[in-house]
Amino acid sequence: MTDDPQAAAPPRLKAQRARQLGTFAGLLALCIVLWAATPHFLTVSNLLNVLEQTSINAIVAVGMTFVIISGGIDLSVGSVLALSGIALAAALEGGVPAPAAIALALATGTACGLVNGVLITFGRLPPFIATLGMMSVARGAALMLAEGRPISGFTEGFRALATGRVVIVPAPVILTAAVYLVAHFVLARTVFGRATYAIGGNEEAARLSGVHVRFHKTAVYGVAGLTSAVAAILLTARLNSAQPTAGTMYELDAIAATVIGGTSLLGGEGTLVGALIGALIMGVLRNGLNLLNVSSFFQQVVIGAVIIGAVLIDMSLKRRR
Amino acid sequence: MRRLCGFAFLGLLAAALAADGCNRDTRPTTGGAPRVAFVMKTLNHPFFLDMQRGAQEAADRAGLQLVVQAAEREIDVEKQMQIIENLLQTAIKVLIVTPSGSREIASAIVKANRAGVPVIVVDTRVDPKAITDNNLKVESFIGSDNYEGGRMAGDYLAKAVGGKARIAILEGIPGHETGDSRLRGFRDAIQPHPGMTIVASQPANWERDQGFTVFQNMLQAHPDIDAIFACSDLMALGAVEAIAAAGRSTRIRVVGFDALDDARKAISAGTMEASVAQSPRDMGRIAVESAAKLLRSEPVPTEQKVRLALVTKGSNP
Fold first, then answer.
1. Do B103 and A150 touch (CB under 8 A)?
2. How many angstroms separate the CA atoms of B275 and B315, rounded?
3. Which helix (DSSP H) or strand (DSSP E) does residue B35 occupy?
4. Are B113 and B137 in contact (CB under 8 A)?
5. Chain B nearest CA to A113, separation (Å)
6. Is residue B216 included in any domain, yes or no?
C-alpha cells in the first residue's frame, strides 16, 4: 500500500468533541422533556424498547457516515437493505443453514456497495447519480427475486438475533454496539479511516499526498452496502419476514441521523458517536411522540423541524469558532 | 466524552429504575378512562378516516379513551411494529390493529400477548400460518368478506357485459390477504364465462398515481381492453384518469372496491361503473364495542363479518 497515514489531515478532534457534546446535550434535554411530559417514557422497559427500535437506523447510519465523511452520498442503502434481506430469506427458505445465508446477505450488500463505488471512482459518476441508479436496480432486483411477495417464517434460532436477550438487553442492541465499536475503531484508528477523512476534506490533496483515492473510495461504498446488509439481517429476524419493499426511505433516516450527529455533508468531518446520538435522537423523538399520542401527521413536522434545527445550531456554532 | 456518555446513560437508567418504582402505584389512576389503542395502516386514506370516526363514536359512548396512531406509509410494517411497541409501554388495556402486513404483524402481536394486552384485528386478516407458528392469541377478527366482495364485482361485470369482455386487473400490494381474496373472488366469479378473458393483471400497490401509470401502460399493450377490475377505488380512479387521458371513444367499464366518495361521484358521472362498498365505519364501531366487551370480561365472537353492498348508478343515492 502506498498510503502514508501522516499525509492525511488529522481530524479536528477537539472541535468535533465539542460538537458531539452539543448533540449529546440535545439528546439529554429531549429525554428530560419527555420524562416530564409522560410517566411512560423513563422506564427501563421503554428505554430498552427505544434502543431496540433505533438499532436498524443506527446500523444503516454507520455506512452512511463513512460515505458522507468521504464527501459522497448513498441513496441506495434502503434498497440494498431490501435486496440483502430477500437474498437472506430466499436462502433460508431454500434450506441453506443460517450462517451461510447470513454470509450470502452480507456478500450481497457489500457487492452492491462496491458496484456503487466502482461506478463513482472508475466510471466517474457523481455519487448521487450512481446510488440513485442502484436504488432502483436493487429495489427491482429484490421485487423480482421475491416475485413481489414477502418471504417469511424462519427458525427460532435465526430469529433470536432480534428476539433474544442477554440478561435484559435485547440482542439487536448488543449487535449495534458491536458494529459501532468495530466501525469506530476502523474510522478513528486505521489507515482506511484516515483516508476516508482525507478524501472528504480535499480529494486532490489526498491523492497528491499518496492516498489511493479510488481504492479507498470504492471500499467506503462497500462499507455502506455491508452495514445495510447487517441491518437487513436484523430487520428480517425482527419481523420474521423479508419484504421486497422493506427499507423504503431508510436512506433519508440514515442521512438525517448522520447530519444531526454533526457530520458535514461537505465531507471531511464527522464521527460515528455523533451518528449514534443522531439516530438515538430520532428514535427517542418517535417513541416520545407515540407515547404522547401526537398525531402521526404532526410527528413528521416535528421530526423535520428537529433535523433542520440541529443542523442550524451546528452551523452557527461552527461559524462562531 | 465517552466517559461522559457512559455516566449520563447510567444516570438515565438509574433514574428510570427509580421512576419505575414510583410509577407502579400511580399507574392505574393516570388518565381515568381505560385506554384502548387503535393502530391503523395509515391515516391519509378516507377508508381509515371513516373507520376512525366509527371507532371514536363508539369509544365516546362506551366511555373509553381511544388512542389512534398510524405509520406515515401504509406498507411500513416496521414502523407499525414500533408504534405498537411504544403504545404497549403506555398501559393500554386493549390493542386494535389493522395489520400493514398479514405475516409481519405476528411479531407485534407476540409482544402484546406477552404484555397481557388482548388483541383485536380489523380489516386485514393475520396469516393463519403465522398464528399457529407463533401461537398467537387474537380475540376477534372484524372485516369484510373480501372474497365475497370480489365475487360480487365479478358477477356484476359478467352480467353487465353479457359474458364477453377483455379484462384488465389492478392488484393491490402483492401478498396482502385483502387484495388476494378480492382477486380470488373476482376470478372465481368470471370463471364460468368463457367469453370473459383476463388480458392483464398487475399490482398498482393500492395507489391512485400507480393505478394511473400502470393502466396507461396496460392500454399501450392491449388497446382493446373493455373492462377493469381494480382491487381498490383509488387505483380504479387512477385508471379512470388514464382512460380520460387516452381519449378513448369506446367505453371501458371500471369496477372498483371501497365505494369512496370520489368513486361514488365517478359512478354518478358515468366514468365508473360500480364499486363494492365496505363499511369501515361499522368496522371501527364494532372493534371498539368488542374492546369494551373484553374489558367487561364478556365473550366476543372470534369472527365478525361486516356487510358489503354493490354501488352502481342505479343504487347510488
1. yes
2. 11
3. strand B35-40
4. yes
5. 24
6. yes
